[in-house]
Amino acid sequence: MDNYSSVREILEETGKYTSFTSGRSMWPLIHHQKDNIIVVAPDGRLKKYDIALYEDGHGRYVLHRVVEVHGDHYIIIGDNCVRRERVTDDMICGVLAGFYKNGKHYVDCRDGMLQKIYARLWTSLYPVRPAILFAERAAGKIKRILKGKKDE
To answer: What tens digit of pLDDT does each residue of 30-48 get?
Structure first.
């Protein structure tokens, strides 16, 4: 961000922002410090299933999926989260155009058919998402325990 003071300013000036991700709220789609995101300035209001970059009330930038569109706000949630958030248009900085998976394979978040299927499927699983995320975390813990016993 050499000559810029914020991501919002970069998007307003250049229309595009790229960065490695930080955090796990968009797993399994986007992985912490592995995937390089490309965010563009929004072209009008966002649509359901768009992945919005917004500034929360604490000055942090958050990348989460739009699950509902209302006249004056959106309901947004991270793919690895269970808490829904109310976000207004003035909080929105950009929208995810795509990302490079592990820095190699480009995933198009606007027109990619697999991405559209994933977004609809994962969003429809919201009611059972806590169970899915619990099972994934439990399996990871068991795997780490078993790996630890093999290394002994």
So the answer is: 999 999 999 999 999 999 9
This prediction has a pTM of 0.86
Please give the DSSP secondary-structure letter assigned to residue 53. Answer: E
Pairing of strands 61-69, 74-77: antiparallel
How many angstroms separate the CA atoms of 142 and 16, rounded?
Answer: 41
Whole-number pLDDT of residue 147: 83
Question: Which residue(s) pair with 119 in the sheet?
Answer: none
Mark 86-114 as b/e (b = at least 16 C-beta within 10 Å). Answer: ebeeebbbbbbbbbbeeeeeebebeeeee
First CA to last CA distance, the chain: 46
**In sequence order, which residues have a C-beta less than 8 Å from that of residue 73 and are 6 or more positions away?**
86, 87, 88, 89
For the chain, the C-alpha Rg in angstroms (whole number) is 17
Residue 139: the pLDDT is: 92
Encoded amino acid at 39, one letter: V
* 3 state DSSP class of 96: strand
In the three-class reduction of DSSP (H, G, I as helix; E, B as strand; rest coil), residue 51 is classed as strand
pLDDT (tens digit per residue) in 82-115 = 899 999 999 999 999 999 998 889 999 999 999 9
